[in-house]
Amino acid sequence: MSLAYLDHAATSPMRPGAVAAMLPFLTERYANPEGSHRFARDARRAVDEARDQVADVLGVAPGEVVFTGGGTEGDNTAIAGAGLGRGTVVVTPAAEHHAVLDAVQRTEGRVVPVTATGHVDLDALADALAPRPSGELVRLVSVMAVNNEVGTMTDLAAVSALVRRLAPQAVLHTDAVQAACWIDLRALTPLVDLLSLSAHKFGGPKGAGVLTVRSGTPLRALLAGGGQERERRSGTHNVGGIVATATALAEADAARPVECARVAQLKDRLLDGLTALGGVTETVPRPAAVPGIAHVCFDGVESEALLYLLDEADVCASAASACASGAMEPSHVLAAMGVPAARAAGALRLSFGHTSAEGDVDRTLDAIADAVSRLRRPVGVSR
Fold it and tell me: 275 and 181: one domain?
């Protein structure tokens, strides 16, 4: 039986075009692009063409594109490479992905609250940006474009205006890992200095990503060595991954208008069906979230038990974050949003992508209805 896969926010299957673009570089076109022979020049040309393609989709110059190993590396490079020193600090909201939040907390940065819908509290952000009597200056601000757990879209224009006004010396970074399929990235890059992407979220391969670095933005390399990527990210280029990333990003960009409308309809059908079950709360109002992420909380149901029954029914979904062992952890995002712990215990994230179809929604609704009915049934009561 095939899966009903509604976990695209965790990872999305590779697009066929990206697979086809990648395969030659895993077989006959395997040279290191740093070499001097024609075989190497062929690989280097492929990287250059991919860089041009990515730059076009992002609305930046090719020289502002840095190829990375994924979103976590991009986020960590932005934060660790911002040139922090004595008398400087990093600021980020409490609902960020751990790739940002943990990196900021290591620097003893400032973490600001978010609203009940997951948006950064702009008044709190303004307070965090204000000069301190100690003279400490904000060196970097990191605010994600789309929340990976609940799908909230940040008003980056408002954030950017605030940062430029109150902390003009600060570098502004956005984790846009969940944005590529749903938001035109050309609208985001002019607002920020650094932007992180991860290829496997939009149909590219795992272990590949992009960090855009606005010209003139100071950035210390996280990885030192051979000096690749204009000395901003050393290491032999993952040529196949880079080419596949560019192809997948271009395909996601071209398909976005149609896909947003198509997936929004799937999401509406799903959420309408779930709320009809009763005791189900939509975590974020639909207009505030991207089409691809539906997040709900079930009364009287524990996420872990619900996910187990969905897995048994061949439905793939997720709840809060998970550690490497797969054990469930409380959601720091829902806690930051002020969702009561009892309600957050029944959280479920269902996320869509380019392979999602009507049948996935039908099957998921049937599976959830059955699972919730079983989990809410009083102990000792049979069918």
Answer: no
Residue 230 shares a structural domain with residue 294: no
Say if residue 279 is in the same domain as residue 237. Answer: no
Q: What residues contact residue 13 under an 8 Å CB cut-off, 6+ apart? A: 5, 203, 353, 354, 355
Q: Is 231 in the same domain as 304?
A: no
Give the structural domain span for 161.
Answer: 16-251
Indicate if 173 and 25 belong to the same structural domain.
yes
For residue range 91-110, list pLDDT tens digits in order: 999 999 999 999 999 999 99
With beta carbons less than 8 A apart as the criterion, state whether 113 and 94 touch: yes
Number of domain units in the chain? 2
In a domain, 383, yes or no: no
What is the residue-wise DSSP string for 185-239?
A: GGGTGGG-SEEEEEGGGTTS-TT-EEEEE-TT-----SS-SS-HHHHTS-S---H
260 is catalytic: no
Tokens of 100: 């940002």
Catalytic residue among 181, 260, 297, 323: 323
Does 54 share its domain with 34? yes
Task: Judge if 60 and 81 occupy the same domain.
Answer: yes
Query: What pLDDT digit, counting tens, does each position of 126-143 carry?
Result: 999 998 888 899 999 999
- Which of 251, 281, 303 is the C-terminal boundary of a domain? 251
> Which of residues 199 and 382 earns the better pLDDT score?
199
Which amino acid appears at position 93 of this protein? P
Structure tokens at 332: 């720091």
Strand segments (E) across the chain: 4-5, 65-68, 88-93, 110-112, 137-142, 171-175, 194-198, 209-213, 280-282, 293-298, 315-316, 347-351
323 pLDDT tier (thresholds 50, 70, 90): very low
Q: Is the pTM of this model over 0.70?
A: yes
Q: What is the pLDDT of residues 211-263, one digit of tens each?
A: 999 999 999 999 999 999 998 999 999 999 999 999 999 999 999 999 999 99
Tell whether 139 and 54 lie within a shared domain.
Answer: yes
